[in-house]
Description:
Elements: H1 2-56, H2 60-149, H3 155-186, E1 193-196, H4 197-214, E2 218-223, E3 228-231, H5 233-249, E4 256-263, E5 267-273, H6 281-284, H7 297-301, H8 309-319, E6 323-329, E7 333-341
Parallel strand pairs: 2-4
Antiparallel strand pairs: 1-3, 4-5, 5-7, 6-7
Helix pairs in contact: 1-2, 2-3, 3-8, 4-5, 5-8
Amino acid sequence: MQLINAPLHKPSLRLAGLYLAIIMVISLFFSVNVYQLSLQEFQRGFGGVPTRILKAVPSQSTISILEQQLIEEHEARYALAKQRVLSRLILTNVLIFIGGGFLSYYLARRTLTPIEEAHEAQSQFTADASHELRTPIAAMQSETEVTLMDPELTLAKATVQLKSNLEELNKLTILTEGLLRLARLENNELYQEVVDLDSVVQQALDRTLPLAEKKHILLTSSGVEGLQVRGDALSLAEAMIIILDNAIKYSPQKTEITIARSQDQRSVTVAIKDQGVGIKATEQQHIFDRFYRADTARSKQQTTGYGLGLAIAKNIVDAHGGRIAVSSKPGQGSTFTIYLPVHH
Ligand code: ADP
């Protein structure tokens, strides 16, 4: 965290400097104008006084003394007023410089923090993806090397090796497909059409029923029919398949999974409820992160997932202007709810 933050401290200062420079240019521009305007006003104000008074005085000698005194007094007052305005303007600019400095730094941090977080998430993602890609490749490489060095290599041994390689390659395919899907979703490649929710749920059911049957899990669907949303039917089905797939994966045999559809004024809701292992409260906030796998013995045993499924599902729902939520209790099961904007 600290390492990634460090290089971004400099841009914050640079941006704050730029903001401050803009504030100071504006402030100085106004100050110079105010100063000039004040001088003009003073000159007009002070200039008028002696002539007015002198006109009212009868004797010539008295006039010249009075005139001299008035001019001196006028100049002294003029210099004092000038001095006051100047020092007030300098003080104001110093205060603006100090206040503006803090404000600029605060604004620069506010501007750069989301960029900083995105940068951090990107670095983390690249590191995780590289790690996940390296593991099967390293396994394949070392096993193949050992097999090739075996002087008594038989066809049977080579077949075993090739099968193992194929397994690793399958894992790589799943992983790269997941990564590609995420990348495409981030570029917003989604259709926009009126989608019939019943057919989306049916598609998801068709795809996951065989898996559920294998574990004697009862998969049922209920709720309001004929609901419509706007978006991409295939992607929405994909998000539901991911959630149903997990529900089956993390549920014991002979349990039940229900899909309930409902609608309120603002959203169409699909809630998928299982009676599985559940998710700890501390982990619930992370399960939608890319590459996150909850620390349960069960999920670590599963070798097919890379922790990308829920990240993909979330991206799909987000791209539809909806949101996805989870409520779960360890040992009692989980409910994943998809909220989508109503299509009028
Ligand atoms: P994975 O490929 O590991 O299933 P996901 O992104 O689909 O990746 O899920 C992330 C983690 O969330 C899983 O590793 C699992 O621990 C947890 N999880 C997801 N769905 C469920 C569920 N229905 N019941 C219990 N845990 C779940």
